[in-house]
TrEMBL record:
InterPro entries (UniProt xref): Homeodomain-like_sf, Transposase_8, Transposase_8_domain
UniProt organism field: Candidatus Thalassospirochaeta sargassi
Single GO MF descriptor: DNA binding
Matching Pfam families: HTH_Tnp_1
UniProt feature coiled coil, ranges: 48-75
Keyword Coiled coil (UniProt): yes
Descriptive protein name: Transposase
Keywords from the UniProt entry: Coiled coil
Listed GO biological process terms: DNA transposition
Entries under Gene3D superfamilies matching the protein: Homeodomain-like (1.10.10.60)
Length: 90
């Protein structure tokens, strides 16, 4: 899924709301739904642009680590099956 807004843009949109603009006006101006705004607020509320960039980096690193663990788990299971097959001939 392609994201239309960068984290820095989202921070700027949040700042506009905190400076007094209504959610409905901000959403209309940027072409987003109010639900999208509230999802952003839940995820990014109170964060600076640097913190959001760091959050994205950590999420990417976490995804890579999860893939690595899944690959290693599959390798381990395959090795165990091979050991069972060759060590317990029936």
């Amino acid at each position: 899924m392609k994201k239309r807004f960068t984290e820095e843009q989202i921070v700027r949109i949040m700042y506009e709301h905190s400076s007094g603009k209504k959610v409905k006006d901000v959403a209309r101006e940027y072409g987003i739904s109010e639900n999208t705004f509230y999802n952003w607020k839940k995820k990014y509320g109170g964060m600076s642009a640097k913190e959001i960039v760091r959050l994205r980096q950590l999420e990417e690193e976490n995804a890579n680590l999860k893939k690595l663990v899944a690959d290693l788990s599959l390798d381990s299971m395959a090795q165990k099956e091979l050991i069972k097959k060759f060590c317990n001939p029936e």
